[in-house]
Specification:
Structural class: mainly alpha
Strand content: under 5%
Helix content: 55-70%
Shape: elongated
Oligomer: single chain
Largest sheet: 2 strands, antiparallel
Mean pLDDT: 82
Number of domains: 1
Number of helices: 7
Low-confidence stretches: 23-42, 264-278
Radius of gyration: 26 Å
């Protein structure tokens, strides 16, 4: 059962509110509010803007997209070479010079893709940790795992299929939980879900395509293997675009959330039924 006030955390009190909302002060009969805690006084010094890291991630994702486009051109050429292979019993006829050149270009572009992805992944994870630490200040109770998992979750076999997504959802919710007037809001997780779906899809297809290509004998069948690799690159481009949207959106949300400067637990809410209003 979720909290009847915020609808986000599990209910923890007899009246159906979570531990944070249960601590919210109601207006006494005389209408005067008791002094509340200073706006995020204990946490403001821990907040760090993720904007700089976000810009770096976006630029690097743009590089990934550009390299993928170049790879598609190289793969299209290589696919044509393989499709033109002529087989006769025990022999494969082909233009050695042209085919070898296309293979060499493909290998170089593949190396460039790997380098671009590696650098982007490193900076992305640094950004991811930063927004996770900020989310701890916004609302630690919404975070499903400790801050260190923002890095470690990516390196756990099988677990990295869903753990980073789970952590990202907690960050997203904590970064968008209030409106300027203190009321609760729930930002759509569509950018997060789209990015994660495309990321998993492109990763899976890329692994299958690479293994298929390496296991295929030198024959016209290699053309189909290259086609699958091209499909993986198209998915990777789509995932990179979705990642850009996700990174920019979450970074902006954290900036807006930090600008509010008031933790949800110190925002007055209407008194429950039966309590006189001012």
């Amino acid at each position: 059962m979720l909290c009847t006030t915020c609808g986000t955390r599990p209910a923890a009190s007899a009246d159906g509110r979570c531990s944070v909302c249960a601590a919210t002060r109601f207006a006494p009969p005389n209408g005067l509010m008791q002094p509340g805690p200073a706006p995020m006084a204990e946490g403001l010094h821990r907040l760090r803007s993720p904007a700089g890291l976000a810009k770096a991630v976006v630029v690097l994702l743009g590089v990934v997209i550009a390299v993928d486009v170049v790879a598609l051109v190289a793969e299209l050429s290589l696919r044509g070479e393989y499709a033109n292979l002529t087989t006769i019993p025990g022999t494969v006829l082909y233009d050695a010079g042209s085919t070898t050149h296309s293979q060499l270009v493909y290998q170089r572009v593949t190396s460039a893709q790997a380098l671009a992805l590696l650098v982007t992944a490193i900076v992305f994870i640094i950004w991811f940790r930063r927004v996770r630490l900020n989310a701890e200040v916004f609302d630690a109770s919404l975070q499903p795992m400790r801050p260190g998992w923002a890095i470690g979750a990516w390196f756990i076999p099988i677990g990295n299929i869903w753990l980073p997504r789970r952590i990202a959802a907690g960050i997203w919710t904590a970064s968008a939980q209030t409106n300027p007037d203190g009321s609760w809001r729930d930002a759509s997780k569509a950018p997060l879900n789209l990015w994660w779906t495309l990321y998993l899809g492109s990763t899976l297809v890329a692994q299958v395509a690479t293994r298929n290509y390496e296991a295929t004998d030198f024959s016209p069948a290699l053309a189909d293997s290259v086609t699958l690799i091209m499909a993986a690159d198209v998915l990777d481009i789509a995932a990179a675009v979705a990642a850009i949207v996700f990174v920019r959106r979450l970074t902006r949300m954290q900036g807006e959330r930090a600008a509010l400067g008031m933790p949800p637990s110190s925002v007055p809410v209407p008194a429950p039924a039966g309590v006189p209003q001012a």
